[in-house]
Amino acid sequence: MKITQLFIDLSGVPIVDTIAAQQLFQLKEISSLIGIAIIKFQRISSAFRE
């Protein structure tokens, strides 16, 4: 089984500091090198709220 997509849900994170942001950028770069698409959610759409 091969991973092709990685979902990163940042909807509960109010602020991403520079260190965490740098790590996310590195994760995206490395993942793309091995063929994994990064899909991130910054906010939950109102359509999914109760």
List the helices and strands and how they pair.
Elements: E1 5-9, H1 18-33, E2 37-41
Parallel strand pairs: 1-2
| Mean pLDDT score | 79
Put simply, the count of helices is 1
Low-confidence stretches: 46-50
Largest sheet geometry: 2 strands, parallel
Strand content: 15-25%
Oligomeric form: single chain
Strand order of the largest sheet: 1-2
What does this structure look like?
The chain is built from one helix and two strands; from the N terminus they run βαβ. With 50 residues, it is of the alpha+beta class. The chain has one domain (5-48). A two-stranded parallel sheet has the order 1-2. The longest helix has 16 residues, at 18-33. The model is unreliable at 46-50 (pLDDT under 50).
